[in-house]
Write a structure and sequence with these properties.
Order of helices and strands: HHEEHEEEEHEHEHEEEHEEHEHHHEEHH
GO molecular function: transmembrane transporter activity
Number of helices: 13
Radius of gyration: 34 Å
Strand content: 15-25%
Shape: elongated
Main location: membrane
Distance between the termini: 34 Å
Mean pLDDT: 81
Largest sheet: 6 strands, mixed
Low-confidence stretches: none
Family: Belongs to the ABC-4 integral membrane protein family.
Keywords: Cell membrane, Membrane, Transmembrane, Transmembrane helix
Pfam family, one: MacB_PCD
Structural class: alpha+beta
Helix content: 40-55%
Length: 416
């Protein structure tokens, strides 16, 4: 039931002690403000990490050969390892249950790309259709390299949006045009784009890997093996599956090419999930630290509310004694003190919440810092924090109120 007289008492007390009430509310509002801002920046770090790794599939793996650094079974160090089609076929057959997509890359040497008698300075790479998914590319026009192209050694090419802008800007679409690669005509069948900010990834022209090997004396050589593993129910399961697959893959390749098991430089492997693991672990630790700092700040605000309520009880001891002498119920006195504590906490908490959410809303999208992107916080989480704070404020007001109830009437009336 709404008690007008009680609210009048609360506002009278606040008016009489404006500075004290303001400073108490400021400490509470600051606690909520700091907590929400810290949580927002924690989410901003998560967004930044996601953005750094969104250029490629998170569970993708790239493998490429280098030189051996150790003697092994009579073979001298310094040998250059060369991946072969057989490696791709064997891995695809043996480990086909472990990955979702697999592709290869072959980079022919000394090729020239010409369009309308203009020499184009772009890289040419032979591949198959799965590379699009593994590298998280999107199609702007036409289609990508497919298995039929690979099987039939088709002379088709897929260019990037960047190449389209720089070379074919005067055309509505480059699809259907022909480019000359070392004297051979290749029909453009599609245009792709790269997610993320690395525009250098759009300087490649893709052709079927079999065509590249056959037309440019590549024999059965390949430069990269690429895989995309499935995502499991949890990040930890995904990491564990990733570790198992890469271990088996490296064991096979080292055995096939006569590489010492402990030689980690002969066959190199880039595994974004491991990079992501380090960043996510760091992000979780920072988020936990933010929660701890914010929570301690809130505790400081609640303690200040409790201290102020103790002062209020001390100042109103004589008044409380008179109320008890006139027959006031204990819980009415408790309610009087708690209402003031809850009111101050609620107003201050909501104020801190509004200012912090407004700051994140207007400033967050404009923040451009490495690994921090669009700091924000879930409103439900922030509101839940305020509700928890109000509950804590009620507890902070209860103990001084209970102390007031237990004061003997005679002692309260004697109080100055």
């Amino acid at each position: 039931m709404f008690d007008l007289e009680r609210w009048q008492e609360i506002f009278d007390t606040i008016r009489k002690n404006k500075l004290r009430t303001f400073l108490t509310g400021l400490s509470v509002a600051s606690g909520i403000f700091i907590l929400v801002i810290l949580l927002g920046f924690g989410q901003g770090m998560q967004n930044g990490i996601d953005n750094e790794f969104k250029g490629d599939a998170a569970t993708s793996i790239w493998v490429w050969p280098q030189r051996t650094t150790m003697e092994y079974k009579g073979l001298n160090p310094g040998r250059r390892i060369q991946l072969r089609n057989e490696n791709y076929e064997t891995v695809s057959k043996i480990f086909d249950q472990d990955f979702e997509k697999a592709s290869v890359l072959y980079f022919p040497n000394d090729v020239q790309v010409v369009y309308n008698n203009d020499l184009l300075v772009y890289n040419v790479a032979g591949t198959n259709g799965d590379l699009q998914v593994i590298e998280n590319e999107f199609l702007s026009e036409g289609r990508y390299i497919n298995e039929k192209d690979v099987r039939e050694n088709a002379k088709v090419a897929v260019i990037s949006n960047k190449i389209k802008r720089e070379v074919f800007s005067n055309l509505e679409t480059p699809v259907g045009e022909y480019i000359m690669i070392s004297g051979a005509g290749f029909k453009i069948v599609g245009v792709y784009g790269e997610y993320g900010r690395n525009e250098s990834e759009e300087e490649r022209i893709f052709i079927p890997v079999t065509t590249a090997q056959l037309a440019f004396n590549g024999a059965d050589k390949i430069n990269n093996l690429n895989f995309m593993l499935p995502e499991m129910d949890s990040f930890e399961e995904t990491v564990a599956m990733n570790d198992t697959f890469t271990t088996k893959l490296l064991e096979y390749l080292k055995l096939y090419h006569g590489v010492a098991p402990e030689d980690d430089r002969a066959i190199r492997l880039y595994n974004p999930i491991q990079e992501a693991k380090r960043f996510y672990t760091l992000g979780k630790a920072i988020e936990l630290f933010f929660w701890a700092v914010g929570f301690l700040t809130l505790i400081a605000g609640v303690v200040s509310v409790s201290n102020i309520m103790l002062i209020v009880v001390k100042e109103r001891t004589r008044e409380i004694g008179i109320r008890k002498a006139l027959g006031a119920k204990p819980w009415s006195i408790v309610g009087m003190i708690m209402h003031e504590a809850i009111f101050v906490t609620a107003v201050a908490g909501c104020t801190g919440l509004i200012f912090s959410m407004a700051l994140l809303e207007f400033v967050g999208p404009n923040i451009e810092v490495d690994y921090v992107m669009n700091p924000s916080v879930d409103f439900n989480v922030a509101l839940s924090t305020v509700i928890l704070l109000i509950f804590a404020g009620a507890i902070a007001g209860f103990f001084p109120a209970w102390k007031a109830v237990n004061v003997q009437v005679i002692e309260a009336l004697r109080d100055d």
